[in-house]
What we know:
By secondary structure, this protein is of the alpha/beta class. It contains nine helices and 14 strands.
Amino acid sequence: MRQQVFKALAGAALVALGALATGVAQAQNCSAWLVENSRFMGVPFGMFHPDRSYIQGSKEARNNVNTVDLPVNVGVIKCGQELILYDNGWNQTDYHKATGTAHWSPLSQQIAQLGFKAADVSKIVIGHGHWDHAGSLDEFPNAMLYVQAEELRGIEWALNYPGHERIRAHNFDKGGCNRTPACGYPPKTVDSIYGKVLRGKAVIVDGEMEIMPGVKIHAAHRAHTAGSQLLEVPTSLGKLVFGSDAYSSWEAIRDWEVANIQQTDSVQQFLAYEKCYKITGGYQNCVAAHEPLSYSDKYPLTKNSWVGMNGGRLAEIALAPGEASRKK
C-alpha cells in the first residue's frame, strides 16, 4: 500500500515538474528577508545546543546560560517577479499550546508587512517537513511546494514502523516523542504536505535542483531529518545558504558544534555546514532557523531588523538592484 501511495505521489509531482522546463536564463541577484513566524520560549539551552549545556556555577560564558528563546525563522526571497518562501512556519494553534510558543502571527499576514500577498508566493522550499517548518502551506494555495523524495520516504517509514513504540511515536503519542524518527510529523502537518502533493502542487526533488537561474536546492539528507535540503540564493551580499534545522544555530555552524539533533546524523550535519562554507566562502551567510541571537548585532546577517505584529521580528538581509527597502 505504501509503495502504491508513493508511486501516486511521484506521478503527481512529475506532472508539476513538466512546468519547470523553461529556457536558459541569466542568474540575477535576489532580495532576501527573514520573518520570525513564532518563538519557542524558555528552551533549555543544552537541549538545543548540547555543547552549551548549563553548568551551575560555571564561570565559562558558554555554559552559564540556562534557557533561551528560539525564533522560528522563515526566509522570504524575491528574484525578479518570483516570490519564494524557504520554510513555512506553522499555523496550528493547538500545536503552539503544546510547545510554549509565543509571538505567533499567520505567515501570510507577516509577509504582508513586507508588502507581499500570499497569492503572489510562487514557490515554497521546505528545509524538511517538521510541524514548525511545513505547517502553513494552506495559506499559499498558488505556491508550488519543493520537498525531497527522501523526506517523504522518511515520514512514511517513521509513521508506519511496526516495532517499538519509542521508535514509531509521534508528538501526541502517550509519553511524547522526544527524538524518535516520527517526532515533528503530527497529523495536520503531514496532511498539509501530502495535500500539496496530491493536488499536483508539489515537485518531489531527488537530490539537487536549480529551481530558477542561480537559485539551487542542495540535498542535506540526515543533517536533521531523512530528507533535509538547503537553498542557495545569489544576492548583493554574495551567496546565501538557507539551512532550516540542518542550520538550527548559526553559532554552532561558526564553532563546528551540533545543534537541535532530533533525527540528525552529526556527520551529515557537519557536511551540511561545510557545504555553506564552500558555497559562500565562510559561515557569515549561513541562514539559521532557530538561532537565539537572530535579529541582533551578534548575528550580523540579521542585524537590520525591526519588530512587527505581535512582537514577531523581521530582518532585511539583502536587496537586489532597484529593490526599495521594506523596513518599517
